[in-house]
Amino acid sequence: MKFRTLYTAALGLLSIQAFAITKLPLPAELFEVNGRTAFVMTPEHLAAGNPWVWYAPTLRNYPHGSQQFYFEQLLAQGIAVAGYDLGEVRGAPESSGQFTGFYDAMVAKGYSAKPVLLGQSRGGLMLLCWAFRNPDKVGAFAGIYPVCNIASWPLQNSKPSVLADYGLSEEAIMKQLNTFNPAGNLTRLAKAGVPMCIIHGDSDSVVPYRDNSALIKAAYEKVGGEIEVKIVPGKGHAEVPGFFTDQDLLEFIFKQTKK
User: Fold this and answer.
1) Helices (H), the chain
2) Which of 2, 31, 72, 214 has its CA 20 to 30 A from that of 202?
3) What distance in Å separates the CA atoms of residue 187 and residue 172, rounded to the nearest whole number?
């Protein structure tokens, strides 16, 4: 498969401070948005409407080989894949606003104004928090065991990152949890007709289904949103084929990018 690139994934040759990502599973164009690294993997021939999937988290070591199968399948269908490295953010209003700068840059490049969001683990919280604040800019949301609840894994296992992102005490965040959590803010996404598809393991002890994806499912259905949730039996929070070669998730993304 041939991909059109301006830069390659040989990132070790880059000395620019902003380009913090150390490797990508496939060749990509790297560019800077407000001093932070963004990437876009572009197929040889973009499909009609210039569709793209926004993957998160994009960090020093993400995405990597586990996501390669999905990315190859998307590129083969003429769908670009992109991401933006803001570091270990947790969905605060300010960092969500910074994500909008990346979205604007992608649209300025000619890509669709309604990407499909693909959030893995903490990337789910990053993208869902951006999505509920920007429902008119979202084509669909797809999640791989996504973090959906600030009170779950984020405050239990990455509290410093949460407090730094929100600039608030833990007590203040908990008092406003319904304001900050995606599950309390899905009405506008439902009214915008944004579909969701999530896969989650029933043995996930890191990001438990009942405290995360189950909350989103119940809340989205309550406000009339379209959501599919696929439970992967016996699987936990692991980068295994059950989560990263799922044809149902791929077909969902293909369908949404063709709208």
Assistant:
1) 68-76, 93-108, 122-133, 153-157, 159-166, 170-175, 177-180, 187-191, 213-222, 241-244, 247-257
2) 72
3) 24
Please tell me the total count of domains within the chain: 1
Q: In a 3-state reduction of DSSP, which class is residue 44?
A: coil
Using only C-alpha atoms, the chain has a radius of gyration, in whole angstroms, of 17
Pairing of strands 196-201, 140-144: parallel
For the question of whether the overall pTM of this predicted structure is more than 0.90, the answer is yes
Structural domain span for residue 181: 3-257
Task: For 47-56, write each residue's pLDDT tens digit.
Answer: 999 999 999 9
Give per-residue pLDDT as tens, 236-251: 999 999 999 999 999 9
**Per-residue exposure over 223-258, b if at least 16 CB sit within 10 Å of its own CB, e if not:** eebebebeebeebebbeeeebbebeebbebbbebbe
